Amino acid sequence: QVQLVEFGGGLVQPGGSLRLSCSASGSIFSINVMGWYRQGPGKERELVATITNGGSTNYANSVKGRFTISRDNAKNTRYLQMNSLKPEDPAVYYCYCNLDQQRGSQLTASEYWGQGTQVTVSS
Predict the structure, then answer these.
(1) How far apart are CA 82 and CA 70, in angstroms?
(2) How far apart are CA 75 and CA 21, in angstroms?
(3) Long-range CB contacts (within 8 A, 24+) of 24-30
(4) Residue 63 half-sphere exposure, CB side, CA atoms within 13 Å?
(5) Which of 34, 54, 92, 119 is the most buried (most CB within 10 A)?
(6) How much is the pLDDT for 118?
(7) What pLDDT is attached to residue 93?
(8) pLDDT tens-digit map of 75-107
(9) How far apart are CA 55 and CA 71, in angstroms?
């Protein structure tokens, strides 16, 4: 089994910064893609940012230039630095991971989600 543990989140004023982290542990052969999605009240879950095993990043247009995703492969941990937070950024931020697990001689791709962490932007 695999666990994703998230830290960070909280309350910040508009224009402020927060840093999220997500660590994966358990039966992991390799991590393919890892990142964050978010879901605001009454909204669909949407992509925020992801980073591949090779270091390629993908950002939602709404966060480009403000958010930065980074990784520590040795710790199976990804970080999301969120700067210049706006009133439209509040949501529950969910860590996402697509990874390979070895079962016998085969590798099987699986997806996992973190428990979510609340980000609130308010003055």
Answers:
(1) 11
(2) 11
(3) 24/76, 24/77, 24/97, 24/99, 24/112, 25/76, 26/1, 26/2, 27/1, 27/2, 27/101, 27/102, 28/2, 28/76, 28/99, 28/100, 28/101, 29/99, 29/100, 29/101, 29/102, 29/107, 30/99, 30/100
(4) 24
(5) 34
(6) 97
(7) 98
(8) 999 999 999 999 999 999 999 999 999 989 999
(9) 8
